[in-house]
Structures are given as structure tokens and as C-alpha cells.
Design goal:
about 290 residues, alpha+beta, about 55% helix, elongated, three-stranded antiparallel sheet
Length: about 290
């Protein structure tokens, strides 16, 4: 009986030990689950990557480097937390910047330029490896500034200010040729404004105003010349008309018209005084009065 009691106690002790071990295992598993969930929560942004509309991604793997084969499109992507997804905006974008440039003769001007651009999505991994996310400041603006300096240096301040000689077209074409070789597509380059030194700007504006005034004066002179020609032609027409009438007015016709007029006046009911003109061709002069 004593041995039987000891066996029962041993069995109970062993059962207690097993229960305690299970509890310890459950606690360890719970702690591990909490740790995993904590790590997932902490590194959620590194594990779950959302690429929005108008964006594309380039994956950098710690062990194999940048993935040059695949360009990750829109949607949700799951990656290992030690890797890194670089997301690029591949839409058409516009950025502005003001450059200080030197014109022909060394006069400085401030030119505000707006650049419409987008990265070439087909070469996005190459863009990432070669330039990185700051490609705008590394290539687009420096290349555009270099093109601007070469172009503006060929023109005088007045030509730049008035955009003569196809200046804008030359600027756009040159920018397209120089920047597109660096995995970036330039849609257009626009000149927003050109600021000259105050004194130079006033001189150019006064010159332009005088030029417009000269054009207006020349236009007025042309109008006066046209008016003089018109009056000359009108006077010639009147002269020709008078010559024609003069040739048709014979003395007999004039006498007949005078007799007709005298007869009409004589038969009118108004009181009148008739004065006979001197000479054989004299016509009567009728002095009329009121009724």
C-alpha cells in the first residue's frame, strides 16, 4: 500500500510537470507570436508596399542588388523587410526654376523656366541605378541650364526679351536632345518670364514704344498719301465732268432754259417785278414779292 501511494503521487507529479511544460510552451509560442506581430507592425511599411496610380517601382534586394528585369506596376506588393522598393512618379510633371544667365555682352538676366518631363518607364531600373530619385536635380535642371547658357549667350538682351529669331524653338529642341539621353523624356520647356535689370528693361521698353509710335506715324502718313491721291482723282473727275457739261452748254440752249424759267416764274401767282436785261440776248430779271 505504501508503494501504491507513492506511485499515485508520482503520477500526479508527472501530470503536473506535463501541464506546466505545456503552459510554458504556450507562453513561449504566444510571446513569439506577439514578437512576430510586433515586428510586422513595426516593419509594415517595409513589407507591404502600395504602388498607386501613375507610379512604378524598382526593387533593391540586399543579396542580389537592384532588380533590372522587372518593373513593379500599380497595386499591393509583399517584400522581405530587408529589401527596399523605390517608387517613382511616372506621370507627366512640371517643375519651375529661375536661372541667372548671361546674354551676349555679359549682361545678366533672370529667366524662369517651366519643364514638363517624365521618367522613361522602360528604362526605370537604369535611371534608378545611374541617377536615383533625385534625377531632376542631377540631370534635368543642370542639362537645361547648360543649354540655356549656350543659347542665351548668342543673343542680345533685347532679342531675349522679345524672343526674336526663333529663340524659344531653339531652346526647346536643344533641351530635348540633351536630356532624353539620360533616361528622362522632356515634353516641353517653357519660358515663363524674362527679367532684365531695371535700367535696361526701361530702355528696351522705351525703344519698343518709340518703334510702335514710328509704325503708327508711318501708317498715318500712308493714310494721308492715300487721301491726297483720292482727292486728286476726285478733282480730276470733277474737272472732266465740268468739261463735258461745258461742251454741251450752247448759247441757244442757255437762252431756251432762261425763257422756260422766266415763263414758269411769270405764271406763278406771286407778285413780281420784271426787269428786261440789256442787249439782244438779255433775259428778264424777275424780282418777286410775297403774296
Amino acid at each position: 500500500r505504501i508503494y501504491g501511494c507513492l506511485d499515485d503521487e508520482d503520477l500526479e507529479l508527472q501530470e503536473l510537470l506535463r501541464i506546466q511544460k505545456r503552459r510554458q510552451v504556450n507562453i513561449v509560442l504566444s510571446l513569439m507570436l506577439v514578437a512576430v506581430l510586433g515586428l510586422v507592425f513595426v516593419f509594415w511599411d517595409r513589407i507591404v508596399i502600395l504602388i498607386r496610380s501613375g507610379e512604378s517601382g524598382v526593387l533593391y534586394d540586399v543579396f542580389s542588388g537592384t532588380d533590372m528585369e522587372e518593373i513593379y506596376g500599380e497595386g499591393l506588393h509583399i517584400i522581405w523587410p530587408w529589401n527596399r522598393m523605390h517608387v517613382y512618379n511616372v506621370r507627366l510633371q512640371t517643375k519651375e526654376r529661375t536661372f541667372q544667365l548671361l546674354t551676349r555682352g555679359g549682361l545678366p538676366i533672370d529667366m524662369k523656366i517651366a519643364i514638363r518631363y517624365r521618367p522613361d518607364i522602360r528604362l526605370l531600373p537604369l535611371l534608378h541605378v545611374t541617377l536615383g530619385p533625385s534625377y531632376l536635380d542631377k540631370v534635368v535642371f543642370p542639362e537645361t541650364e547648360a543649354v540655356l547658357r549656350r543659347a542665351v549667350g548668342q543673343y542680345s538682351p533685347e532679342e531675349v526679351y522679345t524672343s526674336k529669331r526663333g529663340f524659344l524653338e531653339t531652346l526647346v529642341i536643344s533641351s530635348l536632345l540633351n536630356v532624353e539621353d539620360r533616361y528622362v523624356i522632356i515634353d516641353d520647356v517653357l519660358v515663363r518670364s524674362v527679367e532684365l535689370p531695371e535700367l535696361v528693361r526701361k530702355v528696351i521698353e522705351n525703344k519698343l514704344a518709340l518703334l510702335e509710335e514710328r509704325k503708327a506715324y508711318t501708317y498715318r502718313l500712308e493714310i494721308e498719301h492715300k487721301e491726297a491721291e483720292r482727292k486728286k482723282i476726285e478733282a480730276g473727275g470733277i474737272k472732266d465732268y465740268q468739261n463735258i457739261i461745258k461742251q454741251s452748254l450752247t448759247s441757244d440752249l442757255i437762252r431756251w432754259q432762261g425763257i422756260q424759267a422766266t415763263r414758269e416764274l411769270a405764271t406763278s401767282p406771286n407778285a413780281k417785278t420784271v426787269v428786261i436785261g440789256a442787249g439782244k440776248d438779255g433775259l428778264p430779271i424777275i424780282l418777286g414779292g410775297s403774296n
